[in-house]
Every structure is written in C-alpha cells, then in structure tokens.
Amino acid sequence: xxxxxxxxxxxxxxxxxxxxxxxxxxxxxxxxxxxxxxxxxxxxxxxxxxxxxxxxxxxxxxxxxxxxxxxxxxxxxxxxxxxxxxxxxxxxxxxxxxxxxxxxxxxxxxxxxxxxxxxxxxxxxxxxxxxxxxxxxxxxxxxxxxxx
Length: 148
Description:
The chain is α/β, with parallel strands linked by helices.
C-alpha cells in the first residue's frame, strides 16, 4: 500500500493539445506493478489522480485507456474509486461527470447505505451497476464492524 496523502497523486494530466498523458508517477506505478505482480491495484480517488475534465468524454476515455493498459500490462485488476455527484446520489445511479466513466469500463459497482438500515447505519450495499463478465444488478450486503 502506498499513501500519497498530502502529495501529488496525479497519474494522468492534460497536455497542451488537450490530450491526457501519463505522468512520471504513472510510470513509477506501472514499474512497481510489473515488479511486484499484484492481483489488484486500487486507486483512490479519481479526483486525486485524474487532472483532466471529468465531463470531457474524450479525456475521460483516454484516462480509462491508460488504466486499462496498466491492467493488461500487469495482469492486475484496476479498481478506481470515484464519488457520485449530488444527482448520482439522489438518483441511486452513483454517477458523476461524463457518461464515459460508466461506458469505458468493464464493470462498475456502487457502494451505498442499505435502504433497510435506517437506525444502526451499519449496513452497506455493494451493487453491481455494470458487469460485462457477470450478472448486472447483483448486490452484496455488508456490515461495518470495528472499522471494517
């Protein structure tokens, strides 16, 4: 686990032509992943690692393509954490920004409070909003316990 709290964490930024280019930090991550061969690479959050316009479909698509290349090149699943917009929260879709965030990935999950847990606030639902290699609409009920 590598924390970039309080430091630059940008993996993709806009060049002078409006295209997304990988940063030196992205190259370092790619090198570490090639060496250590992780099964999963978790990136938190898109707002910290993507220095483009979240509403620009082309820029979002280019950034997801960088991450897909990282996954293919290292054999690891790449999991990107994003936060929903107010509309994404109220609608239950979990979306924010361009539709390319949803359309460019193979799977998307939405982690939210369980609707039946109005009192304890300990239950969460992990819902599969998109899943190209499995069932859509599946969900997993989780309970917070001692911070986990």
